[in-house]
Design a protein that fits this description.
Elements (H helix, E strand, L loop, with lengths): L6 H9 L10 H14 L2 H18 L8 H17 L6 H7 L17 H5 L1 H5 L7
């Protein structure tokens, strides 16, 4: 069951180390990135979201979970979608018209990256431009 119906509660838990791993799936990643982009400029959103994810992984003792290329690529795609809209949408409406961003199994990044690129150590450490 989905725990976070209130996005502010999700952001608060993410920023105060109260977010439980079992409540932090792909949709929550996208939702947090969307929120940061809705409240900050692109560079600040990248900084906040990336540092938050790195911190979360460190708290779990799994620093290798953080993946810079995936993180930045999603933020850039979400930002592009936000900018293309004629009006600012709330999360529910944004999610409704951007279902392709919410599926981890049918990952949209497969349209932009070769599988080996995303699996590389370099892609984990630095943002790599799409190679498809």
């Amino acid at each position: 069951m989905y725990k976070y119906l209130n996005i502010e509660e999700l952001i608060k838990d993410f920023e105060t180390d109260k977010l439980l791993p079992q409540n932090f799936h792909h949709q929550e990643h996208v939702k947090i990135a969307w929120w940061y982009l809705s409240h900050n400029n692109l560079l600040e959103a990248i900084r906040k979201f990336s540092s938050g994810l790195k911190h979360f992984a460190t708290l779990l003792g799994k620093e290798n979970l953080y993946h810079e290329t995936i993180t930045w690529a999603y933020i850039l795609l979400i930002n592009e979608r936000i900018q293309k809209l004629d009006e600012k949408l709330n999360w529910s409406k944004f999610a409704e018209v951007n279902q392709d961003l919410l599926s981890w199994e049918n990952n949209i990044l497969n349209n932009y990256y070769q599988e080996n690129t995303l699996k590389s150590d370099l892609a984990r450490k630095v943002f790599i431009f799409p190679d498809k």
